[in-house]
From TrEMBL:
PANTHER family: AROM/DEHYDROQUINATE SYNTHASE, PENTAFUNCTIONAL AROM POLYPEPTIDE. This is Multifunctional fusion protein. Catalyzes the transfer of the enolpyruvyl moiety of phosphoenolpyruvate (PEP) to the 5-hydroxyl of shikimate-3-phosphate (S3P) to produce enolpyruvyl shikimate-3-phosphate and inorganic phosphate. The keyword Calcium does not apply. ATP binds at G441, P442, S443, A444, S445, G446, K447, G448, T449. PROSITE patterns: EPSP_SYNTHASE_1, EPSP_SYNTHASE_2. Pfam families: Cytidylate_kin (PF02224), EPSP_synthase (PF00275). Phosphoenolpyruvate binds at K22, G99, R127, Q176, R352, R394, K418. It catalyses: 3-phosphoshikimate + phosphoenolpyruvate = 5-O-(1-carboxyvinyl)-3-phosphoshikimate + phosphate; dCMP + ATP = dCDP + ADP; CMP + ATP = CDP + ADP. GO terms for cellular component: cytoplasm. HAMAP family: Cytidyl_kinase_type1, EPSP_synth. It comes from Oryzomicrobium terrae. One of its GO terms (biological process) is amino acid biosynthetic process.
Amino acid sequence: MEFLDLPSLLSSSGTVRLPGSKSLSNRILLLAALADGETEVRDLLESDDTARMLEALEALGVLVTRLGHHAYRVKGIGGEGAFNGFPNKQLELFLGNAGTAFRPLTAALALAGGEYVLKGVPRMHERPIGDLVDGLRQLGARIDYLENPGFPPLAIHAPAISDVATVSVRGDVSSQFLTGLLMALPLLDRQVTVVVEGELISKPYIEITLAAMARFGVTVQREGWERFTVAAGARYHSPGIIYVEGDASSASYFLAAGLIGGGPVRVEGVGRDSVQGDVAFAEALAKMGARIDMGDNWIEASRPEGGRILAVNMDCNHIPDAAMTLAVVALFADGTTTLSNIASWRVKETDRIAAMAIELRKLGAEVEEGADYLRVTPVPRLQPASIATYDDHRMAMCFSLAAFATPLRILDPGCTAKTFPDYFERLAEVAVVAPVIAIDGPSASGKGTVAARVAAALGWDYLDSGALYRLTALAAQKAGVAWDDEAGVAALAASLDVSFAEGEVCLAGEDVGDAIRSEDISGGASAVAALPAVREALLFRQRAFRVAPGLVADGRDMGSVVFPDARVKVFLTASAEVRAERRYKQLIEKGFSASLDKILQELRTRDERDSQRAVAPLQQNVDAQLLETSNLTIEQAVAQVLAWQQACGADS
Ligand SMILES: Nc1ncnc2c1ncn2[C@@H]1O[C@H](COP(=O)(O)OP(=O)(O)OP(=O)(O)O)[C@@H](O)[C@H]1O
Ligand SMILES: Nc1ccn([C@H]2C[C@H](O)[C@@H](COP(=O)(O)O)O2)c(=O)n1
């Protein structure tokens, strides 16, 4: 599976231009298609969900022209006289996992006339749609469930429109049912009132629907949140040019980054004038300690000097999507945070309450999960983890914020394409990562000694990556697994129980600092290091050492593979004879017997294998500085690395 390793993030600041709002994009596309005249839609979100809507409209015979720079021209099918439906009247449509396409299209096609089959990905077929179908049937729609009653896929037939003036729809599962119904009602050309049964959830999304319909000339009469009336003669008219606001839910990740990482982080594309309810996320974040500034078209978040992140008890019914971000902010709070009234999470792209609980626990947090709430208690130190994303864009995006506390692996990061294809690139623009100095070089060159001293001088962490290969070789030997058994050794590497503390290197609790330095294990380490599956298994473990305030790492592929974005890369070497002598002295000082000739011969063999292997071979890369230490003291070598670090203009 694809993954993205996020290093520890130190701080945040900068500005992000938001992609267009998903909710607005898909509503506007459908309304433009149903309207009379041509509509130029600007700043449209380009993502999987909008691609599904665009494909569907084009398949239905709507003329859509791509103008470039997120602009599209849509030739509406509305006009004078009775609505005649879409040009193509018999079609099977695949709508992926796009709820904002599936629900409104179901309603529009059910009343438009024609024979349609609507399908999606397996998860879409688990997301309820029965309440919308029930509402539409009251109007005369003829819809069959092709698999399970109440769920897609659907077969839609030409309707036998009834003359009822009032229909009811449940509002307590998804607000998209009411949205779909309201958007389709102007196709009927008579007055219809929709009565909402149960407490309407996610009301701000209905505000978005009403605002979008109003831009296309249809005003819905609203009595509280219970009754909505579309008048006879209501018709969609193109507004000519329409701009899509930036996505307020996507803004939540950057605003949260502003609070957690200090900020200020500014998002452009939404602001005080936004029609999207998720701008209320900014208020929620303020309750957690953020300083929020807002303009007509921008919002900025930062953490006041010395400010803490505060735990909250919050009803999140009005911001269901953005509230996922709060669950991750809760990891940084000063106590237990409870997010309530979020039952709708269970029927989203995945069961988000369950998924959140599982993944937050992987980081070490204490989590209580209820039918409609989530309670998160943070721990002082989060642990590195591989975060599963459940094909849910918001899981990937909100969990990226945990990188302000620990290195992380995000599985299937491409799932953000649903709403924000270049999310991680934008995040990288406003987040400062923990710096790395990568020191690679051959055996016994002195890179470990130099790296450890540079780390101590800077107050950074130190990673001896060779020790991990040595520990793997020792673990294999102890377990009776041959060093050339790639799958067997890789499995051991993946679950290696090691700890490095106060100069001790422990394997399963036993100090093996000397054992892993024996010539036997040195040979074994070189052998297992040539196995691709072993290198893969140790990759995240090595990256997880990259924590604040910085890391000095030594090995063979620190600068080329493990930390390719390292700030300083050094290739530290010495002649084979000098290295053999250094190793010889080292062994004698530790009380081991040793032969200089044998050490030289073994060093050469190991150099040969480390530099000739297919994966991550030992070599000086073009972007690494050469540090030839044959005639340098340790102090001189350390001073040179520190000078290079300083020359980068870096003091942290
Ligand atoms: N510039 C130097 N001059 C003299 N001795 C050095 C110098 N650099 C390192 N040494 C000594 O060389 C020995 C080997 O160094 P070290 O263990 O750091 O090498 P290494 O490259 O990390 O080895 P390996 O990766 O094979 O474990 C140590 O005893 C160290 O003190
Ligand atoms: N990043 C690394 C680190 C080490 N190895 C291999 C090379 C050596 O043969 C063995 C032991 O390393 P050392 O302790 O001598 O630095 O592990 C590697 O391939 N990649």
